[in-house]
Write a structure and sequence with these properties.
- The chain is an alpha/beta fold and about 450 residues long.
- It has helices at about 85-105, 165-180, 220-230, 285-300, 315-325, 335-350, 360-370, 395-400, 415-425; strands at about 5-10, 15, 20-25, 25-30, 40-45, 50-60, 130-135, 140-145, 155, 195-205, 210-215, 235-245, 255-260, 265-270, 270-275, 305-310, 330-335, 355-360, 380-385, 405-410, 430-435, 445-454.
- It folds into 3 domains: about 5-65, Beta Barrel (OB fold (Dihydrolipoamide Acetyltransferase, E2P)); about 105-120 and about 285-454, Vaccinia Virus protein VP39 (Rossmann fold, 3-Layer(aba) Sandwich); about 130-270, OB fold (Dihydrolipoamide Acetyltransferase, E2P) (Beta Barrel), CATH 2.40.50.1070.
- The chain is globular.
- The termini are far apart.
Length: about 450
């Protein structure tokens, strides 16, 4: 096997990253596209000691499990990698991935995994999407999504089946406006140009929409663009201009100017209202988020005397939901703006038994353990909802030292969850139950709610 060699492969399964897996001469081969049962031709693009990566050239014999993909961009988009696999097969695959990951990375021989919870909607479920500007062949601004496996190539969006129809309409209108006013797209390598990203958040349960344009400086006629976008639908409640002059290729505004509306919109989850700005974290599948949060509440088995500690609390969604059932709920979050929103959300919902601490979970827990802060709670239940990287080992150790009755782990990455469960087991906490959730149909991403007890 050599780099650039063309191979005929029969796909055996899908890996955790959503890539197809075959095996040649004992070596695992990851292919950028393909489904179990496909026979295809692929060209080796990267060779390592234990595995190889390959680019799909053509499918010679399609898998019987293939279904027609509804999106015209499916062959090049990096988003819906599994759209041509039936939804029932997607669920079976994701459930198997969770079980295998817990076995192989977590060392759990027979993990107690419930059936995966399917999403209420398989399309138009995303309440937030980020779109990138780039230059087309003529050097003019185009707006769309990244091509599969690239960071610098963007194709012009025609349609997308994940967000709302209004989101797509806003993108198409912005595409035309950018061409009319000759907006200069930002170049991610040369670091030249102006317009970088368009973020649209359309919340389905309240039908409120916020739009943000992110650029190195405000482009021509941006106020006119904002008024035209707001006129597309009464659902558009906020339009902002965000400035990001850093070289980091992320859709984040360092500063922000309000162009139309109030600057925030509100979603309603499990009877509570949560305000969100353009940069604030909010689960991107609102209807499935209600099921996820309900499972977290059920896993905690909270009693009225409990004190709940919520690490990585964001804008306080889970903290406030737990506060309704507990004596007190304490949220810890490192982003000051998120903490401000969390406190505002508590006031909005009339919840007085929740408080929030600003800081990284690791140093906050360390300072509490050393008695350096007077605001240390004595939690009987700890909830963790970390980013994809999972928990720092010292956060696991400090959490175990608190000796809560129960730990609820909400995870967006089964691999780091499995790793952390092994660390929790060393601290005396065992996985009692885990429920996977399909938050993002047609993608390889999986969320889980795990219950741990001493």
């Amino acid at each position: 096997m050599k780099v650039n060699e063309l191979l005929t492969l029969e796909i055996s399964d899908l890996a955790l990253g959503g890539k197809a897996v075959s095996r040649v001469d004992g070596r695992v081969v990851f292919v950028d596209r393909g489904l179990p049962g496909d026979v295809l031709e692929a060209r080796i693009s990267r060779l390592k000691r234990g595995y190889a990566e390959a680019r799909l050239e053509r499918v010679t014999t399609p898998s019987p499990r293939r279904v027609p993909a509804g999106c015209p961009h499916v062959a090049r988009c990096g988003g819906c990698r599994m759209q041509d696999l039936s939804y029932a097969d997607q669920l079976r695959l994701k459930h198997a991935q969770v079980v295998q990951t817990l076995q192989h990375l977590g060392g759990i021989f027979a993990p107690p995994v419930n059936e995966i919870v399917p999403a209420p909607e398989t399309f138009h479920y995303r309440n937030k999407m980020e779109f990138s500007f780039a230059a087309d062949e003529s050097g003019r601004a185009t707006l769309g999504l990244h091509e599969r496996g690239t960071f610098d190539r963007v194709f012009a969006l025609e349609t997308c089946l994940l967000p709302s129809a209004l989101t797509v309409e806003i993108v198409r209108h912005t595409q035309a406006f950018a061409l009319e006013y000759a907006w200069r797209p930002y170049h991610v390598s040369a670091h030249t140009g102006v317009v970088r990203f368009l973020t649209v958040r359309h919340l389905p349960l309240t039908d409120q929409c916020a739009v943000q344009l992110i650029a190195t400086q405000e482009p021509r006629a941006i106020d006119s663009w904002a008024k035209e976008v707001a006129a597309l639908s009464p659902a558009v409640k906020s339009v902002t201009a965000g400035i990001n002059r850093s070289r980091a290729n992320i859709a984040f505004a360092e500063t922000e100017r309000l162009l139309v509306g109030a600057g925030t919109i509100v979603e309603r989850l499990l009877g509570l209202e949560f305000a969100a700005g353009a940069n604030a974290f909010l689960q991107t599948n609102s209807r499935q988020a209600e099921a996820l949060y309900s499972a977290a509440l059920a896993a905690a088995r909270t009693e009225p005397h409990d004190v709940v500690l919520d690490l990585y609390c964001g804008t306080g969604t889970l903290t406030l939901l737990f506060a309704r059932q507990a004596r007190e709920a304490v949220g810890v979050e490192s982003v000051p703006a998120a903490v401000e929103l969390a406190r505002a959300n508590a006031e909005r919902n009339g919840i007085g038994n929740a408080r929030f601490v600003t800081g990284e979970s690791r140093p906050v827990l360390r300072s509490w353990a050393r008695g350096e802060r007077a605001d240390a709670p004595k939690p009987t239940i700890v909830v963790v909802d970390p980013p994809r990287a999972g928990l720092h080992p010292r956060v696991v150790v400090r959490t175990c030292e608190l000796r809560p009755r129960r730990i609820v782990y909400v995870s967006c990455n089964p691999a780091t969850l499995a790793r952390d469960l092994k660390d929790f087991a060393a601290g005396g906490y065992t996985l009692r139950e885990l429920t996977p959730f399909d938050m993002f149909p047609h993608t390889p991403h999986i969320e889980c709610v795990a219950r741990l007890e001493a």
